[in-house]
Amino acid sequence: MSIEALHGPDAGAVILMRWQRMGAPTWGVATLAYGGWISLTLGYHALPWWVVLPAAGYVMALYGSLQHETIHGHPTRWPLVNAALAWAPLWLWLPYPIYRDEHRTHHDDEILTDPVADPESKYAAPAEWPRLGRLRRAALRFNTTLLGRLTLGPALAITDFLRREARAVIAGEPGRRRVWALHALALLPVVAWLWVCAIPLWAYVLFFVYPGLSLTLLRSFAEHIASADPQSRTVTVEAGSLFSLLFLNNNLHALHHARPELPWYVLRRLARELPRPALRYGGYGEVARRFLLRPVHPPVHPLAG
Question: What are φ and ψ of residue 171, in 5° steps?
Fold first, then answer.
């Protein structure tokens, strides 16, 4: 289905279609994300911490959503332009090319949730579980609750990723050293800007990176479950406007997996025109009520060999 098919033939719809065809909503998100980041870093010392933390977390999560949108071919038809828009390593720890390649792998529904094949799986492999220490198993169990995902989850995600990448670099995996060398170069202007703003790296991680990743993990917390049927592995969260904007409608995750090529700003209208998915939650409030202290799924994949 094309963008044009989602709108009527009146003049207002024609103008809207032209505006959307240029990717203007995504350019607006980029302006909000970068503008918010610059404003908050410049105003870091003038604002109380209880303002900086939620605002910076929201801006960082929005930037992550922008990166996700560029991976799927928006806002332009030129991949290099899209990549340049989201290349800045504001997260510090995550090189864009690795995120891009792993996320595209994740979109293969046949491997979705598989702890070996799906790089975004939150399950442990059955063969790996017995070899893990008691503390590690406890951490992974806690990470299946929403409280654990929001508090411990960012630390697990970052350390697991960096440990895996260190092994790849040491092993000489093709292209990895080049990616990390380019990432290090791209970090220089970001770190220089933080120095100009007199923000210590530890404070930037604490007030920007960690809460931003925590919000991102809120979105992904309940969106995939293990199932023998590949079409029954993706869940929709029917969020309100605040979270829908923050996640660029990626909370409509079943629709996104079915039509990953569609830009974020057509998903909500299309979702209203389609039957409601069977696997869904009524919002993140429902997710919190059900899974704040209870596991959303077992820590070990129940179907993987």
Answer: -75, -10
Q: What is the rounded distance in angstroms from the CA atom of residue 194 to the CA atom of residue 207?
A: 13
Rg, the chain, Cα only? 20
On whether the CB atoms of residues 129 and 300 are closer than 8 A, the answer is yes
Q: How far apart are CA 297 and CA 219, in angstroms?
A: 15
In a domain, 296, yes or no: no
Gap between the Cα atoms of 201 and 194, Å rounded:
8
What would the two tokens of residue 154 be? 């960012």
> What predicted TM-score, i.e. pTM, was given to this entire model?
0.93
Task: Tell me whether residue 67 is in a domain.
Answer: yes
pLDDT in tens, 202-227: 999 999 999 999 999 999 999 999 99
Give the closest residue to 75 by CA, choosing from 20, 116, 113, 117: 20
- Contacts of residue 38, defined as CB under 8 A and 6 or more positions apart, other chains included, come to none
Domain count, the chain: 1
Could you please report the per-residue DSSP string of 214-274? Answer: HHHHHHHTTSB---SSGGGSB-EE---HHHHHHTTTTTSHHHHHH-TTS-HHHHHHHHHHS
| C-alpha triplet 168, 173, 175: angle, nearest 5° | 115
> Tens of pLDDT along 249-264?
999 999 999 999 999 9
User: pLDDT of 103-122, one tens digit each?
Assistant: 999 999 999 999 999 999 99
Does residue 233 fall inside a structural domain?
Answer: yes
Task: Pull the structure tokens for residue 122.
Answer: 């939150």
Residue 4 has pLDDT above 90, yes or no: no
Host domain of residue 68: 4-291
Which residue, chain included where needed, has tokens 């046949």?
110
- Specify if 181 maps to a domain: yes
pLDDT score recorded for residue 13: 47
Report the C-alpha gap between 202 and 191 in whole angstroms: 12
Which contiguous run of DSSP H or E holds residue 161?
helix 153-170
